[in-house]
Amino acid sequence: MHFDGLLIGACTFLIIGLFHPLVIKMEYYWGTKLWWTWLLAGLIGLGLSLFIDNVTISAILGSFSFSAFWGIGELFAQEKRVQKGWFPRNPKRKYKWDK
Fold first, then answer.
1. 97 with 83: CB under 8 angstroms?
2. Percentage of the chain modeled with pLDDT above 90
3. What are the C-alpha distances in Å from 62 to residues 21, 38, 53, 67?
């Protein structure tokens, strides 16, 4: 039996499960100004996945990478959800729509 697919799927599930609250916390404390950290993490993961010989690890890094790219869009979407009142605002932070 080959468990590589199961391992890749489980790791992808865990990566997405970890990134979702990270996006929410990042927007809460810093807003969208650190979106480039998601881009950098994605590019590093993508670069590493291209040079790793092990197919399973390479696939997991690819999943990490594209989940990080997804995090960029999700960070800006989270800002809109906060603006609509669907998520709590950080009272210590000034929002760009508060003028």
1. yes
2. 91
3. 20, 14, 13, 8
Three-class DSSP category at 36:
helix
What are the Cα distances from residue 30, in Å, to 9, 14, 37, 50, 86? 31, 24, 12, 31, 18
Q: Does the structure show a pLDDT above 80 at 99? A: no
What gap in Å lies between CA 30 and CA 17, rounded to an integer? 20
Query: What 3-state DSSP class applies to 89?
Result: coil
For residue range 41-72, what is the model confidence (pLDDT) as tens digits?
Answer: 999 999 999 999 999 999 999 999 999 999 99
Q: Domain segments of the chain: what residues?
A: 34-84
Q: What is the DSSP string of 51-77?
A: H---HHHHHHHHHHHHHHHHHHHHHHH
